[in-house]
């Protein structure tokens, strides 16, 4: 009976095998490493925000972090009025993008991987909400532009329309780093389980979601969504929020968190500025997938996830 389920057809193209983690200095797979989630306070002073983020990254590395995750929109207030003012030309680099220049320099000098939260990006006449990933050599490994724009209206609670100023990205982002294969989403991207399923099918060990949930949806959905994305796909999920500023135009929920592949909260914090340090152990992914062999039980005879980009690349 099980053979009729056709699990290999539930994901098209078929799921990629989970890659072996990179080797460490002892020439063995790096299954365990430390991650830091830097929940930062954000002000209207961009230079201060950049210097403050640099200090937090350095302190995290000194405590043993090999991967550092920053919050969504950490160099700017989170508002449609601010995005055009604080936006940087990431492609130009240098003085045109002081935030990414800082992350590149620190990643190289400290020999760590940085998932750089997100900053407003200017590209031609368009603005994006963009996450940059830097490797241990300081090179830009990937750039994720937020795919799902935060356009919501909850009467009497919160109304926000990112699409007033921002353009949605076009490509899912998965990147091989010195600490494994990482999928990237930004805040509202976490609500779309299809993206996480796609990342799992592409062999991600970890999905990082820098995000700034608000005081309405944060208490209800922030942890719930993280645990759902992790347990459904049997991988790690890490989130990082700005610290809460009750006087800001947009008030963040906070609660940066690491969730394991069994849906368990491994580390979290409250809403004040803090750095969450935790250990990731990739061997637990295989353990949980052995305990619950979901991949072998999918009903490919009933449903499919089609990764259009991978499908098109195989046919060309």
UniProtKB/TrEMBL annotation:
GO terms for molecular function: omega-amidase activity. One of its GO terms (biological process) is asparagine metabolic process. It comes from the Eukaryota. The keyword Hydrolase applies. Pfam families: CN_hydrolase. Signal peptide: none annotated. Keywords: Hydrolase. InterPro entries: C-N_Hydrolase, C-N_Hydrolase_sf, Nit1/2_C-N_Hydrolase. GO terms for cellular component: mitochondrion. Residues 33-282 form the CN hydrolase domain. PANTHER family: NITRILASE-RELATED, OMEGA-AMIDASE NIT2. This is Carbon-nitrogen hydrolase. It comes from Macleaya cordata (Five-seeded plume-poppy).
């Amino acid at each position: 009976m099980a053979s009729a389920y056709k699990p290999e057809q539930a994901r098209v193209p078929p799921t990629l095998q989970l890659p072996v983690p990179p080797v460490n200095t002892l020439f063995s797979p790096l299954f365990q490493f430390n991650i830091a989630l830097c929940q930062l306070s954000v002000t209207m002073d961009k230079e201060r925000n950049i210097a403050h983020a640099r200090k937090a990254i350095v302190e995290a590395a000194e405590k043993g972090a090999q991967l550092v995750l920053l919050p969504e929109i950490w160099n700017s207030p989170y508002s449609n009025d601010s995005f055009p003012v604080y936006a940087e030309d990431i492609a130009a680099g240098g003085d045109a993008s002081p935030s990414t220049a800082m992350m590149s320099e620190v990643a190289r000098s400290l020999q760590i991987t940085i998932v750089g939260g997100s900053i407003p990006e200017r590209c031609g006449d368009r603005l994006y909400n963009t996450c940059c990933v830097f490797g241990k050599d300081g090179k830009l490994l990937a750039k994720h532009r937020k795919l799902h724009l935060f356009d919501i209206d909850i009467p009497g609670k919160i109304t926000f329309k990112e699409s007033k100023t921002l353009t949605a990205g076009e490509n899912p982002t998965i990147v091989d780093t010195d600490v494994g294969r990482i999928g990237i989403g930004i805040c509202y991207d976490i609500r779309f389980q299809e993206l996480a399923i796609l990342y799992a099918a592409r062999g991600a060990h970890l999905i990082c979601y820098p995000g700034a949930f608000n005081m309405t949806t944060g208490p209800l959905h922030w942890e719930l969504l993280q645990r759902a994305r992790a347990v459904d796909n049997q991988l790690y999920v890490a989130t990082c929020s700005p610290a809460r500023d009750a006087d800001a135009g947009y008030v963040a929920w906070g609660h940066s968190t690491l969730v394991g592949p069994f849906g368990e909260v491994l580390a979290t914090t409250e809403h004040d500025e803090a750095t969450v340090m935790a250990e990731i152990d990739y061997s637990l992914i295989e353990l949980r997938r052995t305990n619950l062999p979901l991949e072998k039980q999918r009903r490919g005879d009933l449903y499919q996830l089609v990764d259009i980009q991978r499908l098109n690349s195989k046919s060309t």
